[in-house]
Specification:
44% helix, alpha/beta, Rossmann fold, 357 residues
Amino acid sequence: MVTNGGGVDRAFWNGRRVLLTGHTGFKGTWAALWLKRLGAEVHGFALAPETDPALWTLLGSDLVASETIADITDRAALAKAIDTARPEIVLHLAAQALVRRSYADPLATISCNTMGTVCLLDSLRGVAGLQAILVVTTDKVYANNDSGRDFVEDDPLGGHDPYSASKAAAELLTRSYATSYFDKAGVAVGTARAGNVIGGGDWSADRLIPDVWRAMQTGLPLSLRFPDATRPWQHVLEPIRGYLLYAQALAEDAMTPRALNFGPVPGTPMTVAEVADTVTAAMGADPAWQRDNGEHPPEMKLLSLDPALAGQALDWRPRLNDAASVAWTARWYSDFAAGSNARALCDAQIDQYEAIP
């Protein structure tokens, strides 16, 4: 466990008007809860939750001052939501975030991730009182040749699959809007790159730990497509703390970098199989999985980020290593399965996380 890194400034966020897109998603719900605890006035914009159960449904709608359920490309809905929120800070998390779904429906993925980002940015032009916009993308925006080298922020962007390409395109368009419109208006715009976020309350399709949960609930064997692949696993509270620190820095310091990585400590990757075994064992079952030898869209085997720049700019460093992140996640699901209240579990983990020096 890493025990250093900056803490979130409650004085900055208390009373701050925040537009949070994607608030009904897994990361968005955790972000809304933490912002609520900080005293922010949160206004949500997202589609309705698509899973049952869904963390947003379990935690309750009192986390937001207003809520718009609409597609991020709906310009009329965006205009109305922005007029209601009068945001000082915008956190853009709304996305189609599943790689396999992007292969099945590339147009919808590109519409949401690329054009949705453009629609939001264009709708924010000229908003009075706006201080900072943070667009959350992914670790997959980089041109990846599977070399295993940790990516840094000035590495070339790329994208083998429609999801990765849609997010790389969103990065380019975000920078274009920043230089064309927002910089001259005094509104700081940044992009945050994080991926393979784990934590309690994620029931999305085609994600490893939700798949472990479903296998245990149904008694069916867990199938792994690429058990030897490594990913930069990190607990959901790690990047969210990074997003909050980053948005504040953008609002307060013109020298803040305009793109930052948020990832675990480089050099300690866990394979998909190791994570599955750890989570299964933590939930009280015998680790067991089978390799899915069917045909699958290609995925990169190696992926890792270098988060050093976030440490320099924000004093952000991961507080949990891979093993701790997996253990915290497994404990959340185990306690939830035993009947614990989802919101109480989330609050308790935020308390525990904030208490780490």
